[in-house]
From TrEMBL:
Protein name from the UniProt record: VMAT1 protein
Gene Ontology CC annotation, any one: synaptic vesicle membrane
Matching Pfam families: MFS_1
Organism: Calyptomena viridis
TM region positions: 22-45, 170-195, 201-218, 230-253, 259-279, 300-318, 338-358, 370-392, 398-417, 424-443, 455-477
Region (Disordered): 92-128, 500-524
Keyword presence, Transmembrane: yes
Catalytic activity: dopamine(in) + 2 H(+)(out) = dopamine(out) + 2 H(+)(in); serotonin(in) + 2 H(+)(out) = serotonin(out) + 2 H(+)(in)
Gene3D superfamilies linked to this entry: MFS general substrate transporter like domains (1.20.1250.20)
One biological process term in Gene Ontology: aminergic neurotransmitter loading into synaptic vesicle
């Protein structure tokens, strides 16, 4: 009798470790936090750099201007002066009078132009040349995460095939926590750049190990599609919360506050992984993985990876350039810079969950082809907006369409490996993540340079037309052929129908459990 009360909690935990649903929860939370950190910096970095570098430099020069050059050197561009002491506006009829008004009332208005943009929400920020150059710097900072992730992904894919998914997943949490804390206390561009690059290493471990783990747990093609849709819902929720959360917390609390909140949530995610995944155990894949070079020569995998790359490249180009374009053309306050991405995040959340189920019924190739076409049209409509409300439609369409593509292509990657190669998923999801990262590396790094050369509207035209031109290639995924070795394993139904695949070895080697009851399910 005494052992009875002691066993239930541990017995429940042991059973929970074997539950695919709890594995899905772990992956969901990991993708949620990773993408919250990905987007929380989007509205913060442009305004933080503008405040610390441009305004900081001008404020140090401004005190010398009233005594050194009291004549009307900065008066001609202004037809009126606004007093921040008594909230009154004084009309200036001629170029000589601005010096008389400050001398007769107060001595601070000559130093007003450098400090007026942040104090007056309706006024556009000064320093157009600085903002134009900042497009490139912010784009490079945002792209650093994707570039590092791009370089690390192949190694992580090989590592997961050798030691399993648990340890890489926990390493991803640890690195992401360090990156978040570094973001909170970084005050220069260089430190922010290092923190962003460090996040790329953590993201590589979390995303490759997480998606590979899901594919190994859900062997049925239909269930795998649903699980991928739910996991991508965590990614979408992170995108949904990140930018608005960052802009509001930065505006009303301070720069460090959103990152400290994310660091606390990351600790909770680490505790969840310790309980469920047992990251100290080495659990290699039960089948020998297909080499990455072989997968990269598969044209169908390349088409799927290209769809992931180009569809996400559009929103990747928007991240560094849209806030600065809004500051220049709409004179938007800080909180609007993050809220502009809210429609895209909400619609992406809806799209991934909706088409995780529908894509399997209507055909994932068709779903992705329609999605890429809608991505192109939405991007072409972005420059037509004259205020933040005009961005709602294009951004909502963009997020919904990318949700269609992602929720279709992620299951297709696992399906293609089952159909044409060996059923080990770490390498193929490393390729999928590489494609995703290429979009987020090429997009921000080239987007800022293109905006500086030809302007923001032409940038949207270029990437929009690119998506429209790539969309027809998704037709190739309608009925991919199986290799000769796989023909004996698969049924003779239409290849894109729902199937359950058997791996070369027994599921008794399932990596998440010590002594599980999977044998019973296997017998069935």
């Amino acid at each position: 009798v005494p052992p009875g009360p002691e066993h239930p909690p541990w017995h429940w935990l042991a059973q929970g470790r074997g539950s695919p649903r709890l594995v899905l929860v772990v992956v969901f939370v990991a993708l949620l936090l990773d993408n919250m950190l990905l987007t929380v910096v989007v509205p913060i970095v442009p305004t933080f750099l503008y405040t610390t570098e441009y305004e900081g430099a001008n404020s140090s020069v401004a005190p010398a201007q009233p005594e050194a050059a009291p004549p009307a050197s900065k008066a001609p561009p202004f037809s009126s002066l606004f007093s921040y002491f008594d909230n009154s506006t004084v009309t200036v009829p001629g170029p000589e009078s601005p010096t008389e008004v400050p001398n007769g009332t107060e001595s601070s208005p000559p130093a007003q132009p450098p400090s007026s943009p942040p104090a007056t929400p309706r006024g556009c920020p000064e320093g157009d040349e600085f903002l134009t150059k900042e497009n490139v710097r912010v784009g490079l900072l945002f792209a650093s995460k994707a570039v590092v992730q791009l370089l690390v992904n192949p190694s992580v894919g090989v590592l997961t095939n050798r030691i399993g998914y648990h340890i890489p997943m926990f390493l991803g949490f640890t690195i992401m926590f360090l990156s978040t804390v570094m973001f909170a206390f970084s005050g220069t561009y260089t430190l922010l750049f290092i923190a962003r690059a460090l996040q790329g290493v953590g993201s590589s471990f979390s995303s490759v190990a997480g998606l590979g783990m899901l594919a190994s747990v859900y062997m049925d093609d239909f269930e795998r599609g649903n699980a991928m849709g739910i996991a991508l819902g965590g990614l979408a929720l992170g995108l949904l919360i990140g930018a608005p959360f960052g802009s509001i917390m930065y505006e009303f609390v301070g720069k460090s506050s959103p990152f400290l909140v994310l660091a606390f949530l990351a600790l909770l995610d680490g505790a969840l992984q310790l309980c469920i995944l047992q990251p100290s155990r080495i659990s290699p894949e039960s089948t020998k993985a297909t080499p990455m070079c072989t997968l990269l020569r598969d044209p169908y995998i390349l088409v799927a990876a290209g769809a992931l790359c180009f569809s996400n490249m559009g929103v990747a180009m928007l991240e560094p350039t849209l806030p600065i374009w809004m500051m220049q053309t709409m004179c938007s306050p800080q909180w609007q810079l993050g809220m502009a991405f809210l429609p895209a995040s909400i619609s992406y959340l809806i799209g991934t969950n909706l088409f995780g189920v529908l894509a399997n019924k209507m055909g994932r190739w068709l779903c992705s082809m329609i999605g890429m076409a809608v991505v192109g049209v939405s991007l072409l409509c972005v420059p037509l907006a004259t205020n933040i409300y005009g961005l709602i439609g294009p951004n909502a369409g963009l997020g919904f369409a990318i949700g269609m593509v992602d929720s279709s292509m992620m299951p297709i990657m696992g399906y293609l490996v089952d159909l044409r190669h060996t059923s080990a998923y770490g390498t193929v999801y490393a390729i999928a993540d590489v494609a995703f990262c290429m979009g987020f590396a090429i997009g921000p790094s080239t987007g800022g340079a293109i905006v500086r050369a030809v302007g923001f509207p032409w940038l949207m035209v270029i990437i929009g037309v690119t998506n429209l031109a790539y969309a027809p290639l998704c037709w190739a995924l309608r009925s991919p052929p199986a290799t000769e070795e796989k023909m004996a394993i698969l049924s003779q139904e239409c290849p894109m129908q729902t199937k359950s695949y058997t791996r070369q070895k027994s599921l008794q080697e399932f990596p998440l459990m010590d002594n599980s009851n999977v044998e019973d399910k296997n017998v069935e």
